[in-house]
Write a structure and sequence with these properties.
Elements lengths: L1 E8 L8 E2 L15 E9 L2 E8 L6 H15 L6 E5 L5 E2 L13 H20 L2 E11 L5 E2 L10 E9 L5 E8 L16 H14 L3 E5 L5 E2 L8 H15 L4 E3 L6 E13 L4 H16 L3 H19 L2 E13 L2 E5 L3 E2 L1 H10 L4 E5 L8 E2 L9 H4 L7 H17 L1
Parallel strand pairs: 4-5, 10-11, 16-18, 17-19
Antiparallel strand pairs: 1-3, 1-7, 2-6, 3-4, 7-9, 7-13, 8-12, 9-10, 14-15, 15-16
Helix pairs in contact: 1-2, 3-4, 5-6, 7-9
Length: 408
Amino acid sequence: MEIGYNKLNITPTQPVHIAGYNRKELSKGVLDPIEINSLVIKENNKTIIFSILDSIIIEDCVILPVKKAIFENFGIPFEQIIIGCIHTHSAPAYFKPFFENVYIDQELQKSLIQSFIKSISKALASLEDASLTMETTQIEGLYGNRNVKDGCVDKSINVLHFMNSHSKNEICSFIQMSCHPTILNGSNFKLSADLLGWIRQKYQTKTQVPCMIVNGFCGDVSTRFYRELKGEDELERVSSSIIQQMNDLNPLDVLFNDLKCTSFEKSYQYNGQSDPFVQKEIPHLKEKIQNSQNDVEKAIASQLLHNLEFKASKGEMVLKLYSHIIKLGNILFISLPGDITAALGKRIVDHFKDYKVIILGYCENYSNYFVCKEDYSKYFETYISRLSKGNADDFIQHVINEADGLLK
């Protein structure tokens, strides 16, 4: 196996618009670096690329030109290139989230394409013979299901270590966890990769090894019920506590031969004007706003109503959902295109008990929230989903079926 890695600092040097929380003002300084981290795995003449951006979302307007350039320059097919983000809500507005009205600087977006190409190209140029080890632990008392405190959640942190086969020196580490990086809220105007960025920075400092981090299935997972402080102080507390708990990482038995991959795209139609939940809930929310004496309740209902009316105003839309499935020995990497709630992610992990499953959420064209049938309409996530009831379940089952086919 060969491994290549690159870390590229792309922090803007001038104030920029920020994606997340509908902020109207420009950024005011930098809290921590905004990065692209690219990892290349080559085994049996097959090459897989993971390239992850510090951003709230990622979209095809950047993904496709990057893949085209890498294919033209290196001959690596689109389906072997996974481009994603970590979902920080305090990074530059490279893209306009569906429910936000933020200004997008086209020059900033164009420069992002070149940055991705640069990072991936450097990673490809740095290939060296390598081996890997994997460790895991459970993080307690810092984050969980944000709707029900003891609800479904994945609290594992998985760490892959890639070492040079000859010197045994570590090339890079690859961390996967599942938690919304939203400790910083709309009052913050410093650019930041938020919780995942701080964990990455602290782990790098601790190990003196370059580190990249990916977010898994955290659609309904955050620090909401566990907060003690605010802003930067809370970011310091939570990230430091996670790093401390990572002192107890447990080694796993892993194999890293036999690299195989597949991918697929599945389309779903959505129309808020005919969606049963939207059409039933809009009059219900209007009634609640009219009759409620509670200002907080009114404000929440008004925001939910706005989301539903906005979806309805867009009429029919088609979501093209894309997933990559990569088998490397007994490790299974699966990319998913949005906010995947914990129950859905757990279905995948539980199905493949003989494999170490690494889910990468927020990869490929971002498609908002994936909510299972059992939770559909119960919580906030449904109000900002663009999938009808049952579609998310169908897509996740298709992922499982495709992965089963790859493993035969």
